[in-house]
Amino acid sequence: MTRRSFLDRTGTIYLPLVLYGLFTLIPFYSMVVLSLHSGGSATGAFTFLPFPLTWQHFDALINGAGFATYVRNSFVVALGTVACAVPIAILTGYGLCRFRLRGGQVFMLVLLMTQFVPAAMLIIPLFIIFKVIGLLNTLIGLVLINATFELPLTAILMRGFISGIPFELEEAAMVDGCSRFQGVVRIVLPLLRPAIVAVAAFAFVGAWNNFLFALFLINDQDLYTVPVGLSYFLGEYNVDFAALAAGGVIAVLPVVLVFALIQRYLVGGLSVGAVKG
Amino acid sequence: MRTPLSTLRGTAVALLAMLAVACGGGTSSNAGGAGTASAAPVTITFWDTNAGPDRTPVWQELIKRFEAANPNITVEYTGIPIAQQLQKLQAAIASGAVPDVANPLSSQLSGMVAQDGLLPLDKQFNSWSGKGDIPASLITSLRALVPDKKLYAIPLSGNMTTLYYRKDWIAQKGLKPPSTWDDFYTDVNALNDPAHNVYGFGFRGATGSASQLENWVFSEAGLTSYFDSKGNASIGSPAAVSVIQKAVGLYGKQTSKDDITHGFPEMVSEFDSGHAAMIMHNLGSYPQHITALGKDAVGAVTLPAMSGGKHVLLNSPNISAMVFKGTKHADAAWKFAAFLASADSVSYFNEKIGQIPSNEKVASAQWVKDNTGIQNALATQKLSSTTLVNPPWILPDYSAIESQMEPSLQKMLLGQVTPSQFASTLADKLATSKRQYDQAHKP
Amino acid sequence: MRNQPAAATASRPQARAADLPARRRAGRRRSWLPYLTLLPASVLIAAFVVFPVATVFYYSVQQYDVTRPYLNGFVGLENFRQVLTSDDVFRTSLAVSVKWVGSEVVGQLVLGMILALVLNSAFRGRGLARSLLFSPWAVSGVVVTTMWKLLYNPFTGMLDTVLMSAGVIHAPIQWLSDLNTVFGAVVAAELWRGVPFFAIVLLAALQGIPTDLYEAASVDGAGRWQAFTRVTLPLLKDAIILATLLRGVWEFNNVDLIYTMTAGGPGDLTTTLPLYVVNQAIRYHNFGYGSALSVIGFVVLLLFAIVYLRLGRFGRDD
Questions:
Q1: C265 pLDDT above the threshold of 90
Q2: Which of B212, B285, B215, B260 is nearest to B50 (CA)?
Q3: Which of A40, A81, C44, C121 is geometrically suited to a Cys-Cys bond with A148, CB 3.0 to 4.6 A?
Q4: Other Cβ atoms within 10 Å of A257 Cβ, number
Q5: What percent of chain C has pLDDT over 90?
Q6: Of B4, B5, B264, the CB nearest to A236
Q7: Is residue A167 within 8 angstroms of chain C, CB to CB?
């Protein structure tokens, strides 16, 4: 890549970055300011700076409202969903892509069809299923249902990413004596790293932020997740914007940290052009 | 290059560990059989249908007191956000995974009984020592809400639609407090100051709008009964329509144009941040307004009287304790419900949330005397010139009908629907629902 | 995401037949083995999706209000007849849905593409930029809507406060109540949340494009724009098709943001079909009618998905 002039870089990198950064960060800024400001509970009024400063909202959440428990539960559910959905997505994506399965296109449509009905309509039958199977009021139940509903996104994306990896590479490995499985693990998975990271991030965030299933399929207060905990602040007779903002900050920090850790894997793999025709 | 197999192994171990946490972390095993001798330890579940940072600690304190008095009973508290509580209760009843006790509003009673979800409490109530403290009229009205006239709910807390106004601004401008509807409109006009982003009234235009308007219309038009003898809803009468017209006429002039999307949080925010001189809500938000503006700035009265000095007030539902049919611990559940309805609990709970205690023993408590909002409400209620009207909570879809009218109300504010059309649509829906109900429950 | 140069493609079919291990060619008896890859997904779907979706179809031909059992019963196609012939709100909700999905998908795609390209370049602080700019995706739904509602609040919100003190406007704009601005305001809030989805998918897809292709293009004299349209875009075609389809379906059926910001109002201006479904089925207790609406939405999405995949000639080399 030729080195580009500063003006050039400004136009194509820095300017869009700053503009979009402003758009992204302004709501975050107002959320953080509100969570630290002592006056915003009833009105959520905007102030430029969070003075007088207070930690009371965070304190009330962690010590009073039991947010530590909610965060812990959310982690369990989100990580569990990733552990469950990503391998299945890779498997399904691989199968749909590599094998000319009869009904492969139909299966893709079936996967998509799970998203064609608004989730609120599925709550009561799901409730019954969960009760019958015995998954009601368990975090593992939440993991399974979240994984199921993240599956279309993750599996279909995986199929797309896998199809971008030429089959020659696996063939070369198999000719060298590897089994198909070993070929996949040794050759395909490392090349899929950016894709796996992206898909894992989606599964994690989807499960982390899921509200409907968490509220309806759980009955124990100490198994509730962060979105349920946040919803308590918008009651009918009480409204606490500052606490909600603080809750939002607590809820988003872990995910931002996760993003910070994984984003480095969103880089190019081996130059695929190594295989020339 | 890292061997992928070791990564897989590591993942498998982590997954198993998480499964262990997940599986171990969530059961509420109900030990003990149903209704055995009180010595066996029992755990019951209690669902709070309006959980939030203000009210949850109150219930948890009551639970603590109950457990101290009944060492063999443990109560597990689960908080449900109010926006989803009805759906969650319905799902629970439909699937049989019900709690033992909950605290919904009495307006939900007929629907839940229609689902056959509740346990009748007549026997237990009649042999309860505290039954004499509960106003008999309340018990009668609760029985009237269900076809078989049994008692399915014990009242804990009453409410009243309240007009909140800026007492300080009224005093500053030398205006009369809004004790009659004429004063109300005078004040709204006088305190209206759009140039400074302050409005005379904060209209609730979004969720909950139809209910609020209905309260307004009944009070200002003086509708003394909900249905007439032919089964027509009085909200469709000409008197009602002209009041609706007046109310809607305030929109955009004495109220902000933004009010059309104001639900509870926005309406309260508008008042508490000093941008509206008056709003209508109920006693439940009184503590919040006092905290935001100070006790001397907030006036809290019932809806104004008509020009002859008479009041017509639409009643509000009661927070009630209900026991579910699927409970495996009926005795313990009743004990808890009775505890919640006892004078001490009712006093504690209502003092904290600022609503009217449903217990005659508590009426003389000092805190009741100190709460201006409650005093005003009770005083007006007790006047012989006041007519109290009950909304048709017996119709299971009454609140659904109110919700259905909300988009239409917004269109009315925008001028796309006339008040007459709005009123007649609402009246038709109510009349149809009543007719269907009466037909299905012919004796 | 096919990304091989054309020359390599031609040789693939031969490579396939000649070098495959014998067991695959002979494996007609083993032909069920590949289907095993679909087994875990099938189990989950069979367990958790088939029955619930089937119940929606079942209730669509019923009058069903759980609180009024005296009215419930089979009504045949009456719900559908009512929806299709005498429900104005249904028609407007369909139009609003199309408008909504169109603006969101296009807006998120364009911004997401720009963001992905920017975040693909090398610059200092790229890691930080990525984490920050992807984070709106991570914020909980109720927090997103509350924060944006606060921003839009004409009394106490930041937008009007800043614009007025800068002298740009003289009276606060009622972003969520003014009929001219409400749709755009809600679209903007959802854009804020949704762009990172595209950015992440496209960024991951960009990683699969071999850098020698860009070198070859610049050797051939192609400018940056041509490199983008001739090299990048075609190779991202499958990613774009998939992402827009998945996102389109999701935006169609996702209700939480609009529900909390405007509840579908003012009037029916921002009522999408699924929001209407939720209103009918849950708030108004017309579960049968709401189910019929859901079935119609289901059919619409199914047709859309089939046509979209066909048109995009997804998965085929050409």
A1: no
A2: B285
A3: C44
A4: 13
A5: 48
A6: B264
A7: yes
Segment C197-216 shows an average pLDDT of 85
d(CA B232, CA A167): 75
- Give me the pLDDT at residue A3, please: 56
> How much is the pTM?
0.88
d(CA B77, CA B67): 12
Amino acid at C149: K
DSSP letter at B226 equals S
ipTM strictly over 0.95? no
Domain B161-316+387-440's class? Answer: alpha beta
Q: Where are the alpha helices (DSSP H) in chain C?
A: 6-19, 22-25, 39-45, 51-59, 78-86, 88-120, 126-134, 141-152, 158-165, 182-206, 211-219, 224-227, 233-253, 256-262, 273-278, 287-311
Domain covering C71-312, topology: MetI-like fold (1.10.3720)
* Separation of alpha carbons B414 and B419, rounded Å: 11
B84 vs A contacts (CB less than 8 Å): 215-216, 231
What's the pLDDT tens digit per position in B397-437? 999 999 999 999 999 999 999 999 999 999 999 999 999 99
Is residue A66 exposed (0-12), middle (13-18) or buried (19+ Cβ within 10 Å)?
A: middle
Surface of A (141-160) touching B: CB under 8 A? 143
- Bridge-based pairing of strands C62-63 and B319-323 is unpaired
**Binding-face residues of C in 214-273 toward A, CB within 8 A:** 214, 218, 238-239, 242-243, 245-246, 249-250, 253, 255-256
With an 8 Å Cβ cutoff, the interface of chain B facing chain C consists of 87, 90, 94, 110-112, 114-115, 197, 205-207, 256-261, 263, 266, 269-270, 273, 275, 396-397, 400-401, 403-404, 406-407, 410-411, 413-414, 416, 436-437, 440-441
Nearest CA to C98 out of C309, C297, C279, C314 is that of C297
Q: Is the pLDDT reported for residue A272 higher than 50?
A: no
pLDDT band at A236 (very low <50, low <70, confident <90, very high): low
Phi then psi for residue B193, to 5 deg, are: -145, 70
CA dist C177 → B195, B198, C147 (Å): 19, 17, 17
CA–CA separation, A273 and C209 (whole Å): 9
Give the best-scoring range by mean pLDDT among B263-267, C17-21, C97-101: C97-101
C315 sits in the region (left: phi over 0; alpha: psi -120 to 50; else beta) called left
Kindly list the residues from chain B whose CB atom is less than 8 angstroms away from the CB atom of residue C68.
Answer: 111, 114, 396-397, 436-437
Give dist(CA A16, CA A10) in Å, integer: 8
- On the question of a common fold for B42-152+319-357 and B161-316+387-440, the answer reads yes
Q: Name the E strands within A92-219.
A: none
pLDDT at B394: 95
Residues of C in contact with A34 (CB under 8 A): 150
Q: Which residues contact B199 (CB under 8 A, 6 or more apart)?
A: B192, B193, B254, B255, B256, B270, B275, B276, B277
Nearest to B288 among A220, A238, A243 (CB): A238
What residues of C are in contact with residue A133 (Cβ under 8 Å)? 47
- Fold topology of B42-152+319-357: D-Maltodextrin-Binding Protein; domain 2 (3.40.190)
Strands B42-48 and B101-102: parallel
Distance, in Å, from the CA atom of A211 to the CA atom of C140, rounded to the nearest integer, reads: 9
Q: Would the CB atoms of B115 and C66 count as touching at under 8 Å? A: yes
